[in-house]
Amino acid sequence: MEDWALIRRLAREGVPKAAIVRKLGISRTTVDKAIASQGPPKYERASGPTSFTPFEERVRAMLAETPDMPATVLAERVGWTGSIRWFRDNVNRVRVDHRPIDPADRLTWSAGDVAQCDLWFPPREILLEDGSRALLPVLVMTLAYSRFMLVRMIPTRKTQDLLLAMWALLSEVGCVPRRLIWDNEAGIGCGKLTEPAAVFAGTLATKIVLLPPRDPESKGVVERRNGFFETSFMPGRHFESPADFNAQFAGWLGTANTRVVRTTKARPVDLLTVDKEKMTPLPPAVLHLGWRNHVRLGRDYYVRVDTSDYSVHPTAIGARVDVSADLDTVRVRHGGRLVAEHPRRWARGMTVTDPAHVTAAAELRHAYQHRDPAAAPGEDEGLVRDLGDYDRAFGLDSLAGGSL
Predict the structure, then answer these.
(1) First vs last Cα of the chain: how many Å apart?
(2) Is the pTM of this model over 0.85?
(3) How far out from the chain centre does Cα 367 lie?
(4) Do residues 290 and 325 lie in contact, with contact meaning Cβ atoms separated by under 8 Å?
(5) What DSSP element (H or E) covers 33?
(6) Which residues pair with 140 in a beta bridge?
(7) Mind listing the pLDDT tens digit for each residue in 376-398?
(8) Which run of H or E residues covers position 74?
(9) Where are the alpha helices (DSSP H) in 124-219?
(10) Disulfide-capable partner of 80 in 75, 118, 357, 400 (CB 3.0 to 4.6 Å)?
(11) What percent of the chain has pLDDT over 90?
């Protein structure tokens, strides 16, 4: 390559070919070729049959039917016994001709139109109330136009907690976009929205869009944020609880949302105002949101929310009570009166007891076991009557008197 460049430079400067041959110690033919060439010399090996050639036709036939068939399976099917690396390189070369083409359009997002939603599982187990640790889901919401990010760790990926978290994040914005985009998340819907999700969307006057399979571009804005969180937020951090995680994340987002986004060349906080102007105001509240149940309280005076049990004041035993829970608190009401309130536990299978409920249960049990028998109805009272009462009831008393 260096000789070729030098030959052409000397020739351009007017140095005779014979002088170039003497100076560089090369042949006259090499000098002639270098001057006449349009590009640098390169080695080109003549193409010819290889060890893969006898198998290529069969490999192409299989790839035409199954473009994603692994190279190891193809090698077994065609009887290849040579180097699997060489075979794989050749398969990758011909696979391109048979793989279906799926172009990706560049999407543009208008103000107030879309919030992309996704579940992210941070690669760090979080300490829970019972001392155990678990990988917990995090709902990530990104406003597509402004790229404004909102995040909330939640106890489960069930419908109730997903909708509660969506409401919490939208409440931070103060309004709702025209569309909320989701993958096929079971708690939201697979092909069809779950009934609670449809009610939630209708109440907010928005539309929840479930993306079809193999359409990552339509939710790429929020999914790229997941990788950003793992490289920019997670390193070097330690979390004492889910609440600590949410608090640290909220503080970090205050800075992250002020950084210039490369694709928009603007800061999310600067575009947020324009985004919100095109959105719909949130309603004051969403009825029937969260965990709700209407059950009869048993003698053990506990109710279950998700997988944990919570005590209720035992005066409600035998009555029907209303159980409600959000991401933070469990409440039980009887006839509109609050009979239990507990912080919600995120660990699974816990039993949460209010000592006041245990004390009240002990008092009621003692009163029941030491009640005055004389004050209680007799066991056979009401079962023994004068037989004359039955005669008079059936009109037999006059007949009996006449027979005597």
Answers:
(1) 147
(2) no
(3) 51
(4) yes
(5) helix 28-36
(6) 118, 151
(7) 554 444 445 555 554 555 554 54
(8) helix 71-78
(9) 159-173, 195-204
(10) 75
(11) 69
